[in-house]
Design brief:
The complex is a heterodimer of chains A (about 260) and B (about 625). Chain A is α+β, with helices and mostly antiparallel strands. Chain A has eight helices and seven strands, in the order E-E-H-E-E-E-E-E-H-H-H-H-H-H-H. Among the domains of chain B are: about 265-400, Flavocytochrome C3, Chain A, domain 1; about 475-600, Methane Monooxygenase Hydroxylase, Chain G, domain 1, CATH 1.20.58. The chains are: A alpha+beta (about 260), B alpha+beta (about 625).
């Protein structure tokens, strides 16, 4: 098939950026979207033009590196799919496609389709863990976990941190991402001791990073390649509310012995 | 320099315990005086960085991805082994040890493998307590499944995303330390050289992949956890960014490279569909639990699979290996698939594929049960091929998946450069000539959580380490070399793209150093690769600037190193005149076509020493002794 691509080119974070049109022939339906861009890039290099920069790594939909907006939809038209697993059979001959990076204040563009998502790491660093020194764990079967809880935790934990939810949200909110981690850990018995402080700290960090608030639009769920559900946000809000009500200043531990 | 493996003696079940007791400790107040660099943030690197920071060391961690959470460990699907014997089916530490030594075709160090099996149980405990959502039974206990190369169910799993969940566990532990200011994280940063001063690893040179800035980081010890080098084949199941550069730079600075030719070809991947193909996608080995592998009995049979009656199908693994059937180890399954295709019985448009059929299982267990077990894998297959495995059998073909070879390390996971430790897939240890399924995650986490915290402390406590400044002439020289290499790559302005060289290298490797090898082809391949390398350095075209996010430049540096590694792999493979595990030499096979080892002459790990540009590498041998598992012809019949 033959395609017309309009792709966001931006040399550096300070460059203004613009859409640039490209034509590409002989696109096979068996190619992945990124393989199609590889072919375009090889042609550009042949013409002495700098190739289009885009993040990608595993190309099997799990590392969360890739992602951009195709015709207004994060990760493109096929549901539950990252762009690396989106295949060209989802498109038609003579299609015109517009490719843009994730747009959010908390995801500054570094170059072309590449954005800086380190704000996600800082949200995890603010509380998205169970504090557990290596070697101090009890036997794996010491605490039974109901299968239903474990399955729900797994569904939330499937988040790949790609950022599509933020890109799709009119408020550029990171609520689905943050809630997925709060749910994953909060549903498990191991995550209970820090459950409420975790919600408080992670939400506060998301605010500091400049992500917007959730206004229950649901675009995030619609584009999520891993099917993370909105109910996680409800769970986050509940944990946050309880956390806020129960909050006490930490006490000093010095003086014992 | 002779090799000292520092392998302990005495009863095997006491070796690690005794070694731990004999090792020196660094007291808690002194740990923060030591600077440690961890390169790589996958299961091995992430768990090491988090654990060392928790102990009190000053840690810097580096990864080329935009976040430590994206390391390629994340793509591991099937599971992680542990000798918990929760299933009461006869498993034990000794049995996991035995299976792993045998599965590795008697080319791994017994002491290391025993330690790995011993630690496996702690890993599960650690991961569960971190919140890794492993699959569970209705009673709330952990579920297990069986995996290739084992007759017990010892594999723990989290749907088809076990690697992801274990990595997120390690990543969260790492982020906790980063948030607490105990680890300084450097994402989008690539290590381009190792700094060795007075024979000790003392730092690294890095390039910031966004700004292009070249920096040096001085430290008291350096840990590489940089994964495998399967991408030397261009097409592999590895992530596009996976590369050998850190390990290769270490090799050129004096670290020996162990068993470079030991490569694992995974039997269940989606076949290649065209020239544009950029990577191969693995279908979890767990599918072999319920899928039956077959080809038509008649060569050149072009009928659709549904039209081929049962009597005209050859379930060749069940026929050839009745006791293990579809669950034979990966090397055996891959070679059998190749043999079927060589006989003209391969399926699909290219003839390079075999069927993996769930029809019988769906009849036996119902479609619902199969969906629960493999639903996400079936969806992934359908997205990529446009065919539903519920309707037509999957087509699969072997693909490069894992490298058992890597930087040679002793029992302490230290390389031949003191102070340089190598963990996980990046080192050569534990898996011998073939890795069993669900053992890579186990090894990465064993090294990072439970081995390096002890052995690093022992090194720091027993070796005086001088203070070094960034003005040291060797530090400046290393930085200058990196700068020059970057400038050189950008100034060639030749006619071919980096990818075109990478593809050509990959094809040479796959054709001559892949599933079947022979001495003549291997030596020819080595010569071809040398010529290709020479051409690369005069005719590659890398556009863009040094001080910029430049993905072509990143690739160019990595491909340049792959070109050198590829040659060494061919030389190593040519030098090993026996078949073992994933290394199959056509000249050395049994009458039935099985791998034939030569224990009398080749029961050693090959450790190659770099001797300089255009000089042949020197071979050192670490003789392997088997006191517990006596080498025998591996039989899965």
């Amino acid at each position: 098939m033959r395609l017309t691509l309009h792709i966001w080119r931006q040399k550096s974070p300070s460059d203004k950026g613009r859409m640039v049109p490209y034509k590409l022939d002989n696109v096979s339906e068996h190619m992945s979207f990124l393989e199609m861009l590889d072919v375009l890039n090889e042609q550009l290099i042949g013409k002495g033009q700098e190739p289009i920069a885009f993040d990608h790594d595993c190309r099997e939909g799990i590392c969360g590196s890739c992602g951009f907006v195709i015709n207004g939809v994060a990760h493109g038209p096929r549901r539950g799919t990252t762009v690396c697993q989106l295949h060209m059979r989802s498109f038609n001959d003579n299609d015109e496609l517009f490719l843009e990076p994730w747009r959010a204040a908390a995801f500054p563009v570094l170059k072309d389709l590449v954005v800086d998502r380190s704000s996600f790491d800082r949200i995890i660093g603010a509380g998205g863990y169970i504090s557990l020194p290596t070697g101090s764990a009890p036997d794996g079967n010491a605490i039974p976990v109901p299968k239903g809880d474990s399955d729900m935790a797994m569904s939330a934990a499937a988040c790949i941190g790609c950022g599509a939810c933020v890109a799709a949200c009119p408020n550029a909110s990171a609520s689905l991402f943050t809630a997925a981690k709060i749910s994953h850990l909060g549903l498990l018995p191991q995550g209970q001791p820090e459950r409420h402080s975790r919600a408080l700290n992670m939400v506060a960090q998301a605010d500091r990073e400049g992500f917007g608030n959730c206004s229950n639009i649901g675009e995030c769920e619609a584009v999520c390649p891993k099917g993370i559900q909105l109910e996680n946000i409800a769970r986050m809000n509940r944990d946050y509310l309880i956390g806020a009500a129960l909050y006490r200043e930490p006490q000093s531990e010095a003086g014992a012995g | 320099m002779p090799l000292h493996s520092r392998t302990p003696t005495g009863p095997i079940e006491k070796r690690w315990e005794n070694t731990k007791f004999e090792m020196k400790l660094v007291n808690p107040a002194n740990k923060r005086k030591y600077n440690v660099l961890v390169v790589g943030s996958g299961l091995a690197g992430g768990s090491a960085a988090a654990t060392l920071a928790e102990l009190g060391y000053n840690v810097k961690c580096f990864c080329f991805q935009d976040s430590p959470r994206r390391a390629h460990s994340i793509a591991a699907q099937g599971g992680i082994n542990a000798a918990k014997n929760y299933q009461n089916d006869g498993d034990s530490i000794y049995r996991l040890f035995y299976d792993t030594v045998k599965g590795g075709d008697f080319r791994a160090r017994e002491s290391n493998v025993y330690r790995l099996a011993e630690i496996s149980v702690n890993i599960i405990d650690q991961a569960v307590a971190q919140g890794v959502p492993f699959a569970r039974e209705y009673g709330g206990t952990l579920a297990n499944r069986s995996f290739g190369g084992a007759q017990v169910s010892r594999t723990f799993y989290a749907r088809g995303q076990t690697g992801q969940q274990l990595l997120l566990g390690a990543y969260q532990a790492l982020e906790r330390q980063i948030g607490a200011g105990r680890v300084k994280m450097y994402p989008r940063t690539e290590m381009l050289d190792l700094i060795v001063i007075d024979g000790k690893a003392r730092g690294i040179v890095t390039r910031n992949l966004v700004t292009g800035r070249i920096d040096v980081h001085i430290a008291d010890a350096v840990i590489l956890a940089t994964g495998g080098y399967g991408n030397v084949f261009y097409l592999s199941t590895n992530a596009k960014g996976s590369n050998v550069t850190a390990g290769w730079r270490a090799y050129k600075r004096g670290a020996y490279f162990g068993n470079p030719c030991f490569t694992q070809i995974h039997p269940t991947c989606i076949p290649v569909s065209g020239d544009y193909q950029s990577k191969l996608t693995l279908m979890s080995e767990s599918l072999r639990n319920d899928g039956r592998i077959w080809v038509p009995k008649m060569p050149g049979d072009t009928r659709k699979p549904q039209q081929i009656p049962e009597a005209e199908r050859d379930y060749y693994l069940e026929r050839m290996y009745p006791s293990f059937g579809n669950l034979v180890p990966r090397d055996v399954a891959s070679r059998a698939a190749k043999r079927m295709c060589d006989e003209g019985r391969g399926v699909g448009p290219t003839g390079l594929g075999v069927y993996l059929d769930f029809g019988a299982s769906m009849e036996r267990l119902g479609r619902q049960a199969i969906t629960e077990r493999y639903g996400n894998l079936f969806e992934m297959y359908e997205r990529i091929t446009g065919e539903s495995p519920y309707e037509v059998p999957m087509r699969i073909f072997p693909a490069v998946h894992y490298t058992m070879g890597g930087v040679w390390v002793d029992y302490h996971l230290m390389s031949t450069v003191p102070g340089l430790f190598v963990l996980g897939e990046a080192n050569f240890s534990d898996h011998g000539a073939n890795r069993l399924g669900a053992s890579a995650l186990m090894q990465g986490l064993a090294d990072g959580y439970f081995v390096i915290p002890y052995t690093l402390g022992n090194y720091l406590a027993s070796n005086p380490i001088e203070k070094i400044s960034e003005d040291h002439p060797l530090v400046k020289a290393a930085k200058e070399e990196v700068n020059n290499r970057v400038k050189k790559l950008l100034s060639i302005n030749g006619a071919r793209t980096v990818d075109s060289y990478h593809r050509e290298l990959g094809k040479i490797m796959w054709d001559h150093c892949g599933m079947a090898r022979n001495a003549k082809d291997l030596l020819e391949a080595a010569a071809k690769i040398r010529a290709l390398k020479a051409e690369f350095w005069t005719n590659v075209n890398v556009l863009g600037d040094a001080a910029d996010l430049n993905q072509s430049l990143e690739k160019a540096g990595r491909v340049a190193d792959f070109l050198e590694l590829g040659e060494l792999m061919c030389i190593d493979a040519a030098d090993r005149h026996e078949s073992c595990g994933g290394h199959f030499r056509e000249e050395h096979q049994t009458p039935e076509g099985e791998a034939m080892r030569d224990d009398e002459h080749y029961a050693y790990a090959a450790a190659w020493e770099y001797k300089g540009e255009d000089k042949p590498a020197a071979l050192h041998k670490e003789e392997l002794t088997f006191e517990y598992v006596k080498p025998s012809q591996r039989s899965y019949k």
